[in-house]
Amino acid sequence: MKIYILTDMEGISGIWRPEQVQKGTSEYERGRRLLCEDVNAAIAGAFDGGATEVVVLDGHGDGNNFILEVMDDRAIYETVKSSLEVMPSLDETFSGLIQVGCHAMAGTLNAFLDHTQSSTTWFNLYINGRRFGEIGQAGAYAGAFGVPVIMVTGDKAACDEAQSFFGDIEVVAVKVGLGRNKAKCIAPKMAQKMIYDAAVRAVQRAKSGEFKPLILENPIEMRLELCRSDYADEYAARPGVERVDARTVRKIIKSAKEIYYW
């Protein structure tokens, strides 16, 4: 039984201010160790729940956030070669996707470091008329391979968002956002125990077939609202992209496997 784990940093336990997720700051090294501990908890829980193989992708920024020598050596750690590559080894042979360290979509109230893809250029993303963030995008991409999201960890807003897309999956809220730039956290050791327990349950439930993949109806309309009109100028010049108004562009795709390709 194969499980894929996609990670981010904003929703990791013990991370409560922006500097902890930004490379080059004094707080980043502490933040990346917390990332490794949360991910290790999810890996251990997945194996103890019955997974036979776990593949992990470091999805925060440009990757390279893991300290590999402290990571669980039973998992496989893969990287992407370019921004057009998404979860490279994910395919129909996987039984579930776990998302660790998630944040809510742009514009969510009391969500720690809420954004969708780019916190400087993207304002709102709509897919088939519904507003999407990164949690839903990853779930739709996995759904194109028939793979369901089985678990999400992050702040409370991220977990609420996940359940609005995927229903009764396992979620672990490790913090509550106090505005955008501060959070109230559960102690990391306690949060990691919660993550481990949820991963055990998630994989056991996946074995029973309890989860359903998120399948988007084709053709798929993606409508992206940018923060400024000059950002929209750039997108509108790309192949297959149509200008809607000063800050909005639109694209039609045939499969959710193309959901990240602008």
Q: What does the model show?
A:
- The protein is an alpha/beta fold.
- It has two domains: 206 residues, 3-Layer(aba) Sandwich (Rossmann fold); 39 residues, no CATH class.
- Helices cover 27% and strands 26% of the residues.
- The chain contains five helices and twelve strands.
- Strand 8 and strand 9 form a beta hairpin.
- Helix 1 runs parallel beside helix 4.
- The longest helix has 22 residues.
- The two termini are 33 Å apart.
- The model has no long low-confidence stretch (mean pLDDT 97).
Write the layout of secondary structure elements.
Elements: E1 2-7, H1 28-49, E2 53-58, E3 76-78, E4 94-102, E5 122-127, E6 130-132, H2 134-143, E7 149-155, H3 156-166, E8 170-177, E9 183-185, H4 188-207, E10 220-226, H5 229-236, E11 242-245, E12 248-253
Parallel strand pairs: 1-2, 1-4, 2-3, 4-7, 7-8
Antiparallel strand pairs: 5-6, 5-10, 8-9, 10-12, 11-12
Helix pairs in contact: 1-4
List descriptors:
12 strands, single chain, 26% strand, 7-stranded mixed sheet, alpha/beta, 5 helices, 5-stranded antiparallel sheet, Rossmann fold, 262 residues, 2 domains
